[in-house]
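[recover] target loaded
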């Protein structure tokens, strides 16, 4: 399917070609990302539509590798605690899968179990009282990831980033109490080339 899609994209617009080429990348080189590129990616996110044009997003950007790795381990531990409940069979296996671990109990041995060694982590927050914010943040983050791909960068949306709020290090982000973290995105120069997963083709329903 990947070959067919890429062949098809040759005759399509640059935008659609970028959509086809974006992947969730979970392995990165040590190459840092220039601040100007990070700002370009965020600027693209700002161009997303939002309910009543409220533009609810705030962006908290981390580039300190030591802080990223420390937060990653704390978030992993916090997330696993949410899944491990008395009598819940297979919780560790399930959490390990969601965190892309081969064994959930050994996440401590990984240097960066949540952010996968990416040099940039962007936490996206919104006001707690905005019920439409999750949809707005979804559109904003897609803009950011497509913009990153067009700039030669790779990304991955990390939903587990929201568990940062349960860590002792959360205060380092200086997020106001009126906001909550909805998503995190990792950005960098990828060190892998994931295959295109199969896409379902039986989910269009024309209503005549």
């Amino acid at each position: 399917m990947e070959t067919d899609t890429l062949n098809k994209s040759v005759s399509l617009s640059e935008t659609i070609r970028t959509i086809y080429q974006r992947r969730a990348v979970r392995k990165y080189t040590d190459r840092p990302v220039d601040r100007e590129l990070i700002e370009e990616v965020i600027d693209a996110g700002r161009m997303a539509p939002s309910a009543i044009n409220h533009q609810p997003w705030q962006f908290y950007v981390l580039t300190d590798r030591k802080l990223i790795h420390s937060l990653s381990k704390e978030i992993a531990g916090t997330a696993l605690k949410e899944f491990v409940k008395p009598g819940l069979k297979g919780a560790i296996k399930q959490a390990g899968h969601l965190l892309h671990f081969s064994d959930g109990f050994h996440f401590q041995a990984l240097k960066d179990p949540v952010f996968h060694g990416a040099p940039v982590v962007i936490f996206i927050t919104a006001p707690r009282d905005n019920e439409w914010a999750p949809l707005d943040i979804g559109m904003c983050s897609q803009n950011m990831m497509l913009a990153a791909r067009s700039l030669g960068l790779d990304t991955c949306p990390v939903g587990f980033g929201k568990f940062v709020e349960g860590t002792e290090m959360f205060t380092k982000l200086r997020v106001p109490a009126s906001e909550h973290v909805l998503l995190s995105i990792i950005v960098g120069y990828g060190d892998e080339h994931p295959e295109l997963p199969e896409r379902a083709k039986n989910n269009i329903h024309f209503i005549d």
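[recover] notes: The longest helix spans residues 65-83.
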